[in-house]
Write a structure and sequence with these properties.
The complex is a heterotrimer. Chain A is an alpha+beta fold. Chain A folds into three domains: 49 residues, Uridine Diphospho-n-acetylenolpyruvylglucosamine Reductase, domain 2; 116 residues, 2-Layer Sandwich (Uridine Diphospho-n-acetylenolpyruvylglucosamine Reductase, domain 3), CATH 3.30.465.10; 115 residues, CO dehydrogenase flavoprotein, C-terminal domain (Enolase-like, domain 1), CATH 3.30.390. Helix content of chain A is 29%, strand content 24%. In chain A, helix 5 packs antiparallel against helix 8. The longest helix of chain A is centred in the last third of the chain and has 23 residues. Chain A is globular. Chain B is an alpha+beta fold. Chain B has a five-stranded mixed β-sheet, sandwiched between helices. The radius of gyration of chain B is 18 Å and the shape is globular. Among the domains of chain C are: 222 residues, 2-Layer Sandwich (Aldehyde Oxidoreductase, domain 4), CATH 3.30.365; 164 residues, 2-Layer Sandwich (Aldehyde Oxidoreductase, domain 4). The chains are: A alpha+beta, B alpha+beta, C alpha+beta. Chains B and C meet through helix 2, helix 3, helix 4 and helix 5 of B and helix 1, strand 1, helix 3, helix 8 and helix 18 of C.
């Protein structure tokens, strides 16, 4: 399991990277390497050229500008996970990262790499979709922006052209006091989700849900927003939550449309199983998000 | 070993893409010529003859090849040697005390029988060294999650977990 | 785990029985171990295999021209290039007349491939990278043939044949019986209840973290062939090399250096063993091959695919009257290890229970998969799964507590030694040597608070959580003979060496054997060098499997050390002028009464008890015993302070144990969380409790993997679909609980240590107990009777069953 031979390139800027990408045949971009390198070791990917993005300083960093959080595509997952800015403004992402791989893979893996790889079970595209993220993409023709909702084109397939590089991701943050949760079922800690759900909630003064985002991943070609659930949530009274037993919160029925989503059918997880699981994950994510919005969730020590 | 599907697509450039890599490993400077496709673990083991780091799966799951790059744990099977130009690498060979005696963590692993065949041990040690540095007073669950990216087929992990907790308490006691 | 290990015993305690820190640890903790891939020899070539992508095909031709043209490629070898003697099949170890077609590996495929990964050609190059480049350029023309994947389907008349040479896929049949089974199942004669079920267990490879690793060097000047292998049975490897290369036995040396885990998978002499040795001879250069993980998934032997149709008859007091079963064993494509696995599986069924009559039909089936050979547990997990599950089903049917049903059927301590009725794999009757099975079960139940569970379950239910509890028992044949020898030698430096043919894959054999020796010679284990698994170190040996090393090599070490002790005493007595002694008094018992009273062995010296200032060091004695040219020995002294013993046990020893688990099941996902896991076990006398606990804890982890994570999936064409660690799930630190252990120590009367062996008991009942507990947690979630029949039990199957 050794990679096939290639020419190695280490550009120092994005413009240099996209020039290389535009001119070289059969070139692959190397970000954190946590997905590409295994595929190269298996020779499932045999690139003639590898363009290493790890030398481009401008691709990393986290900042908050005008109510939007900006994250460079090459920012390491672990740096996002431990960023005070992200913890304050996008705790959903932090919770999701606790379930992404392992510390060694998060130390190297990047947000942009994960989005570009677009594994359907990955937590990160689901979170960026939930945040309604915008992707900044650069090519020799300049920069363009694309919403996350338009980025995925199928399993491990994105709207990136052959000469385009994902540069950064930005999204509008939710106000303080919002509720969030990322819930998934994976066979083991750190494995990709068999089904996962991201939930974001905002309550009104009467503690009814006034805004909701629900995203499911792990079922089909990529993460999807479940608008039927989102709409049904508006006006839901959260008052009885704290005393409700898990499984009887009222969210179980509201989450049911998640069990109608398109899903893979394979020996590891039959379609109905994934669908049923999705609805359960949504209900559980909603419960935790709502409890957090009410200030009633018992957080575990990090 | 290749999947049958890629047999026909093999592309082999005529001249290997050779690069010089200069770096520090366990505080010592090294410099060597290496083909760009060489993984860091093969470079450490076969070029620098630092064979303490092990290769268990070559797809980034087992964790036996974990080393520290500038103090951060990483899979050396998923890193190219050319990528660590100028970096500071720490491997299992660099973890003992300066006088050659076992570090607190190494000693704890021996006392708690946290190793059997020893093949996963280099990855466990590097991962836990980073973890205990960042989390001086961990819970058992935190230790388990910290090494969840390191597979061990022998020990059932219990001795490793107990060794990490023992080492944490001893390190804390050592601190003024 | 109990107390931390110490470098030496507490004052007043012996080395044997104390939790001692391992001799092995320092090197392994500092990166100074010596695994095969750590060895770099000048001029070494790196091998890579061209493997069949098809489960069954005929080879029509091999074109290697493009591969040979690649710079850095030294050779591409096929079957026709092998030395003549290597162009035959690898010998079947443990042949058995029940095998109709005893087919084993070719060194390289001759004209037919029979499983995905079957090696067809071998590339030798300057680096593994180049070897893999060339491998992709070797063009093999295959005529794809129909393959058989499923063992039950393989027995259908219209099924394709796994090999072109066989008439059908029934590779062997065996019937074994004792007692009057017909009467046992006859209602007129007291069979009040009959319980029937079919069970299935899936296969998986051993997955030691170190892949298979081989290095061969041939020195044409001397004819010496040296083979370094990550293996488990060095002398068996040597035997095969001698046969396949028609080599002078005195010129073959096999060494197993540090081995990174074995679990059965490294016991086998594979195609690649033969190919690497042959290539070293053919090229005159050292040849190294390191298996990669994908190759391990495809080609390392695997275990556990078996189908069990089992029937249990009980009387009106719920006492077992008899068992009838038909077991179908998926043997894969070849027989490298005979039919040991299914044989052990069926003879393990009675376990700790009195089973007056049994009838077994065993069907062994060829399929187009990597061969089935022992993986940790070696058939026992399946036999225990079938028996424990059918007992659970009986308890359900009879409305009886699962523990009470078992209790009524346990062999009682006063029945020991207890003959089951079978002949075991060692050719001796299955005869349990010692143990208190009721006490063992009772101690596990007390530890997990079986009585208090109903209350805990109800309390959890009030919170919306589902808890289950279960127990499972096993008896494990261990300590298999015929022998494993040991040489103990006092060196001229005063240090002591131990040599044995046994190899270690993490068990800590160096430490264990050193502890046994240290007590006899009055030295610390740091004064002892243990050389394992070097055929140049000891002339005969067998290997490490079947939890046999402490019983065999341990006893040999004990006896050899005692003999050396006698020699030390006798020679020291002479040198110190104590008394005239005849070596004839020494014998093997180690007891030389007069001398033992006059002399003592302390810190590497023999000294007078009455005058401790007067003594003589081991080093001085060794130099005398190794002699000066021309000087005669005193009367009664013979050459050397060394002794070799090949202890041979009269029969296998039998360990036993009870596992008990309490867990929580999430009915929505099928996920489980283990709350407590208790193991009460009796492995006889413990040499090093810390190491035994490590074996048990690690064994349980392996069993848990089998129970709910590991699933080796093949499609209908026998193409393996789970060939990465992302698809085939090994247990992680977050999956394995702390195992609470209770050690019972019933010494075995069959060896001087009283030991039994502990390598596999953690694995054997784990799947049975987990599946039972999941069933218990969910029993009232379905309207009908819930009974799970597979291992693993995957979460989606749980959820599907709940919604069926």
């Amino acid at each position: 399991m050794k990679p096939s031979a290639f020419q190695y390139h280490r550009p120092a800027s994005v413009s240099e990277a996209v020039q290389l990408l535009a001119t070289l045949d059969n070139a692959k971009l190397l970000a954190g390497g946590q997905s590409l390198m295994p595929m190269m070791n298996f020779r499932a990917v045999m690139a003639d050229h590898v363009i290493d993005l790890n030398g481009i300083a401008e691709l990393s960093g986290i900042s908050l500008r005008d109510g939007r959080l900006h994250i460079g595509a090459m920012t390491r997952q672990r740096d996002i996970e431990h960023s005070p800015l992200v913890a304050e403004h996008c705790p959903l992402l932090v919770e999701a990262y606790h379930q992404v791989g392992h510390r060694q893979t998060r130390n190297r893996g990047t947000l942009g790499g994960s989005l570009s790889h677009f594994d359907p079970a990955s937590e990160q595209p689901a979170c960026i979709l939930a945040m309604d993220g915008m992707l900044v993409i650069q090519s020799p023709r300049g920069q363009r922006e694309l919403p996350m909702s338009a980025f995925g084109q199928g399993i491990m397939s994105t709207a990136l052209e052959h000469d385009e590089v994902l540069v950064s991701i930005h999204f509008s943050v939710w106000p303080a006091g919002h509720g969030w949760a990322f819930e998934e079922f994976a066979r083991r800690h750190g494995d990709f989700a068999m089904a996962g759900a991201a939930a974001l909630l905002e309550l009104d003064a009467a503690r009814r849900i006034q805004r909701a985002v629900v995203v499911v991943c792990g079922l089909g070609n990529g993460p999807v927003r479940v608008s039927a659930v989102e709409q049904a949530l508006i006006g839901f009274d959260t008052a009885a939550l704290a005393s409700a037993k898990p499984g009887t919160t009222g969210f179980e029925a509201l989450a049911a449309p998640a069990s109608q989503l398109e899903a893979f059918d394979d020996p590891h997880a039959p379609k109905e199983y994934r669908q049923r699981l999705a609805a359960t994950m949504v209900a559980r994510a909603l419960r935790r998000a709502a409890l957090r919005a009410r200030g009633e969730f018992q957080e575990l020590a990090a | 070993m290749n999947s049958p599907a890629v047999h026909a697509a093999g592309v082999t450039p005529n001249a290997p893409d050779m690069r010089r890599v200069s770096l520090r490993v366990n505080g010592k400077p090294y410099s060597a010529e290496v083909e760009s496709r060489t993984t860091l673990v093969d470079f450490l083991r076969h070029s620098l003859l630092l064979t303490g780091t092990h290769v268990g799966c070559e797809h980034g799951v087992c964790g036996a090849c974990t080393i520290l790059i500038d103090g951060r744990s990483a899979r050396s099977c998923l890193t190219l040697a050319v990528q660590v130009e100028g970096c500071d690498i720490t491997t299992i060979e660099g973890l003992a005390n300066a006088d050659g005696s076992l570090s607190i963590l190494q000693q704890a692993l021996s006392e708690k029988h946290g190793l059997q065949c020893g093949f996963c041990t280099p990855g466990m040690l590097t991962t836990l060294s980073e973890f205990l540095r960042d989390h001086p007073a961990p819970s058992e669950q935190q230790v388990r999650e910290a090494i969840s990216g390191n597979l061990c087929r022998c020990t059932g992990y219990q001795g490793i977990v107990e060794a990490a907790l023992l080492a944490a308490s001893r390190i804390a006691a050592d601190r003024p | 785990m109990t107390a931390a290990a110490r470098p030496s015993p507490e004052p007043g305690h012996a080395w044997v029985g104390s939790p001692i820190q391992r001799l092995e640890d320092h090197a392994l903790l500092t990166g100074q171990g010596h695994f095969v891939d750590d060895l770099h020899l000048p001029g070494m070539l790196h091998a890579c295999f061209v493997r069949s992508p098809h489960a069954h095909a005929r080879i029509r031709g091999i074109d290697r021209q493009r591969a040979l043209a690649l710079p850095g490629v030294h050779a591409v070898l096929t079957w026709a290039d092998l030395p003549e003697a290597a162009r035959k099949r690898v010998p079947v170890l443990l042949p058995n007349p029940a095998i109709r077609d005893p087919l084993n590996y070719w060194v390289l495929a001759k004209d037919e491939v029979v499983y995905v990964g079957d090696p067809v050609a071998m590339v030798l190059a300057e680096s593994r990278y180049i070897a893999e480049d060339a491998e992709a350029l070797v063009e093999v023309d295959y005529e794809v043939l129909p393959a058989v994947s499923h063992a039950l389907e393989a027995l259908q008349p219209a099924a394709p044949r796994a090999h072109l040479s066989v008439q059908d896929n029934l590779a062997g049949k065996l019937n074994m019986a004792y007692g009057d089974v017909a009467a046992a199942f006859d209602p007129a004669q007291g069979a009040a209840h009959v319980v029937r079920e079919t069970y299935w267990q899936n296969r998986g490879a051993a997955h030691a973290m170190e892949p298979r690793s081989y290095l061969a060097r041939h020195d044409p000047a001397t004819g010496e062939l040296t083979y370094w292998k990550a293996g488990q049975a060095p002398h068996l490897d040597r035997k095969n090399i001698i046969e396949l290369l028609d080599w002078n036995p005195e010129k073959v040396r096999v060494i197993h250096p540090d081995v990174g885990g074995g679990f059965g998978g490294k016991t086998i002499f594979y195609s690649e063993d033969g190919a690497v040795c042959a290539a070293a001879v053919l090229t005159g250069r050292p040849v190294k091959w390191i298996e990669d993980r994908r190759e391990h998934f495809l080609t390392a032997t695997q275990e556990r695919d078996q189908w069990w149709e089992i029937e249990l008859a009980l009387d009106d007091q719920a006492r077992i009257r008899g068992v009838r079963l038909v077991m179908t064993h998926d043997n894969g494509a070849y027989f490298p290890w005979g039919i040991i696995t299914p044989y052990i599986a069926v003879t393990t069924v009675p376990g700790p229970y009195v089973v007056p009559a049994m009838d077994i039909d065993l069907r062994i089936v060829h399929t187009n998969k990597s061969p089935a050979t022992p993986v940790r547990g070696a058939g026992r997990p399946q036999g225990v799964f079938a028996m424990e599950r059918i007992l659970d089903k009986a308890a359900q049917q009879l409305g009886l507590d699962r523990a009470e049903l078992r209790r009524r059927n346990l062999v009682q301590p006063e029945q020991m030694p207890y003959s089951v009725g079978f002949i075991y794999r060692d050719g001796k009757p299955v005869r349990y040597d010692s143990g208190d099975y009721p006490a063992c079960q009772a101690s596990a139940l007390a530890a997990i608070d079986w009585q208090g569970f109903a209350q805990r379950k109800a309390a959890a239910r009030a919170e919306g959580r589902l808890l289950g509890i279960a127990l499972a028992n096993y008896v494990e044949g261990t300590g298999l003979g015929p022998f494993e020898g040991a040489t103990v030698r006092v060196q001229q430096t005063g240090r002591v060496s131990i040599f044995t043919g046994a190899s270690a894959q993490g068990q800590g054999h160096k430490t264990t054997l050193a502890q046994i020796c240290a007590d006899q010679l009055g030295i610390a284990i740091s004064q002892i060098d243990v050389v394992l698994a070097d055929t140049a170190g000891i002339s005969m040996g067998i290997g490490t499997f079947a939890s046999r090393i402490v019983v065999n090599a341990g006893s040999s070490t004990l006896l050899a050390a005692r003999a050396v002790r006698s020699k030390l005493l006798a020679l020291a007595a002479h040198e110190l002028g104590v008394a005239a002694v005849s070596m004839g008094d020494a014998g093997l018992s180690g007891a030389v009464p007069g001398l033992e009273q006059a002399l003592e062995l302390v810190d590497g010296s023999v000294r007078l008890r009455a005058d401790p200032q007067r003594g003589i060091s081991f080093a001085a004695l060794a130099r005398i015993a190794q002699a000066m040219p021309g000087f005669a020995f005193p009367e009664g002294v013979s050459a050397g302070l060394e002794d070799t013993q090949y202890f041979s046990p009269a029969q296998s020893t039998y360990c036993n144990g009870t596992h008990a688990v309490e867990l929580e099941v999430d009915p929505a996902s099928g996920g489980i969380r283990i709350l407590r896991y208790v193991v009460a076990h009796d492995s006889g006398k413990l040499i090093n409790p810390l190491l035994v606990e490590g074996q048990v804890q690690g064994g349980v982890a392996h069993g848990l993997g089998n129970a709910w994570l590991e699933y080796m999936h093949y499609d209908a064409q026998s193409q393996p679909l789970t060939t990465t660690f992302a698809d085939y799930l090994l247990p992680m630190a977050t999956d394995v609980p702390r195992v609470e252990m209770i050690h019972l120590e019933s010494p075995s009367p069959l060896n001087p240590l009283g030991a039994k062996g502990a390598g596999e008991g953690g694995t054997i009942p784990a799947a049975a107990v987990i599946v039972s507990a999941v069933e218990d947690a969910l029993a009232d979630q379905v309207a009908d009777r819930l009974h799970f029949t597979t291992s693993p039990l995957l979460p989606q199957w749980i959820v599907q069953r709940l919604h069926a």
